[in-house]
Amino acid sequence: MKKYSNKLAAMMLAAALGTATLPFHVLQADAAQAPLAAQDIEQAVQGLSQLRVMQGYQDGTMGITSPITRAELAKMLVLAFGLEGKAETEPSFTDVKSNAWYERYATELVALDIMQAPDGRFDPRGSVTHAELVQMVSKALKRDAKSVDYWAERFYSEEGHATRGQAAYLISIAHDAIPSEKAKITSVRALNAITLIVTFDAPLTSDDEAFAKAKEDFKFNDGLALTNMPRLKTGSISTYIVPTSVQKPGTSYTLTYKGKTAGTFTGNSTKLDMTEARQVTQDTFELEALKENGVVDYGYVISAYSGGRGANAFVLDENNSADGKVYQIISSGQAREVTITPAGGQPIVAKYVPFTQSTDGKQEPKFRLPEGQTLTPGVTYTISSDWAQIANPSFVAGSFAPLDIVGDEAVSDSSIAITLSEDPGDELFSGRSVELTDADGNQHIATYKYSSRKGAVGIFDLTQESKLKPGSTYTIKPVGEWAGETDASLTVN
Question: Is 23 left (phi over 0), alpha (psi -120 to 50) or beta?
Answer without folding.
Answer: beta
